[in-house]
Amino acid sequence: METQVKVFKALAHPIRLKIIKKLSKGEMCVCKLNQDVEFSQSNLSQHLKILREAGILIGRKDGMWTHYSITNEKVLEIIEIAGNLD
């Protein structure tokens, strides 16, 4: 149950949902994730850390950049289901 709580807490923030939606198209460099956002690099790093700790994202180092991707596509299903509750 602890894992479920971590996942739902991680998904319960608009910025983190925005990050996940960007990554739904595939792996992305942190430099690309930081484009077109209204928050700082350090703020982005904090949100990415929370998503990684919840097991939602995985990071892959490539030189000085980290590329992020969604670990399990089922998280997108959860988001879609929640969006249909309106």
From TrEMBL:
SMART domains: HTH_ARSR. It comes from the Bacteria. GO terms for molecular function: DNA binding; DNA-binding transcription factor activity. Gene3D superfamilies: Winged helix-like DNA-binding domain superfamily/Winged helix DNA-binding domain. Keywords: DNA-binding, Transcription, Transcription regulation. Transmembrane segments: none annotated. Signal peptide: none annotated. Residues 1-86 form the HTH arsR-type domain. It holds the Pfam family HTH_5. This is ArsR family transcriptional regulator.
